[in-house]
Design goal:
The protein is globular, with a radius of gyration of 18 Å. The chain folds into two domains: 37 residues, no CATH class; 100 residues, Sandwich (Tumour Suppressor Smad4). The protein is mostly beta strands. The strands form three sheets. It has a six-stranded antiparallel beta sheet with strand order 4-3-13-12-9-10, with no helix packed on it. It has a five-stranded antiparallel beta sheet with strand order 6-5-7-8-11, with no helix packed on it. A two-stranded antiparallel ribbon has the order 1-2. About 13% of the residues have low confidence. The chain is built from one helix and 13 strands.
Length: 172
């Protein structure tokens, strides 16, 4: 994989795409342009093609860490999701594992948004734009809720615990 950054700041795999697929969205749907990787494979060695599910554009938030979400159960148990200053978009990958999403992620993948406001030194959890709901404790998140720390969130079948780093005593 050759990770490349385009002029607009998007990261993409230059081994797969001749140019940025986020700037040129037609590349994401034109399978003839996507490079498969090994050019010397013979047709007998190539597995039968199956329709690929769209990749979830997962990303670590830009800038310094403001806190974490720690996965308490499921396949990703014990894994943490880094939260940045400003907005961090939350969703699930194709396997149902919680991920932080890039700012370019489709709205349909965003189940929630966790915001750290560095000036007010507060955290707020907002409902996402996905049809899927995020739960704060046992209640569906339908309007913004301020977070203090140690709250549990549910995205799909995964339960996560919110752990703040920044706050009244420290902020970047």
């Amino acid at each position: 994989m050759k990770l490349t950054k385009c002029a607009s700041g998007h990261f993409y795999d230059a081994d797969k795409y001749p140019e940025c697929p986020y700037c040129n969205t037609g590349l994401q749907t034109d399978s003839s342009i996507v490079r498969s990787g090994a050019a010397e494979e013979s047709p007998e060695d190539t597995p039968e093609e199956t329709p690929a599910e769209p990749a979830v554009p997962a990303a670590a938030p830009a800038g310094p860490v403001a806190g974490w979400l720690v996965v308490l159960d499921g396949e990703a148990k014990g894994r943490d999701l880094r939260l940045g200053v400003g907005r961090t978009f939350l969703g699930l990958d194709k396997d149902g594992t919680p991920v932080t999403l890039s700012a370019d992620a489709p709205l349909s993948l965003r189940q929630a948004v966790l915001v750290y406001d560095g000036e007010a030194k507060t955290y707020t959890l907002l409902p996402g734009s996905s049809q899927e709901l995020c739960y704060l404790g046992d209640t569906a998140l339908l309007e913004p809720q301020e977070l203090a720390g140690e709250e549990t969130l549910r995205l799909g079948a995964a339960t996560l615990k919110f752990v703040p780093f920044c706050g009244p005593d420290f902020s970047w």
